[in-house]
Amino acid sequence: MPVVVLLAEDRPWAAWWVGDPADQRLEIDVCLPPTTTGACWRYVDLELDPVLHRPSGRVEIEDWDEYEEAALNGWMNADEAGLAQATAEHCAEVLRRGAEPWIQRGWQMLRDM
Fold this sequence. Notes:
This protein is α+β, with helices and mostly antiparallel strands. The chain has a single domain (about 5-105), classed as FomD-like (FomD barrel-like fold, Beta Barrel), CATH 2.40.380. It is about 35% helix and about 25% strand. The strands form 2 sheets. A 5-stranded antiparallel sheet has the order 1-2-3-6-7, with helices on one face. A two-stranded antiparallel sheet has the order 4-5. The longest helix is centred in the C-terminal third of the chain and has 20 residues, at about 80-95. It starts with a strand and ends with a helix.
């Protein structure tokens, strides 16, 4: 299925527009800010994933259980856990408003594939 991904080195999230015919959605991977190594990107996933489901407009934050497990087991430190929660809540609110230009640009790129 077609997917468009937005990564930026200064943002603690990566956006994935997913062209699933059964559940077209915009998924946000909350992460440490992505980095580039030559032609490749990489990032450390901080588990929480705000998701916008289309066409219903429903927004949810997925994977709270994985986030709690990672925090409890020391797979992320307290600062990373705080960043994850704050970023997930902020991104979920951005998805609910839908006003950011990059959101519409991603849908357009997905349609153009």
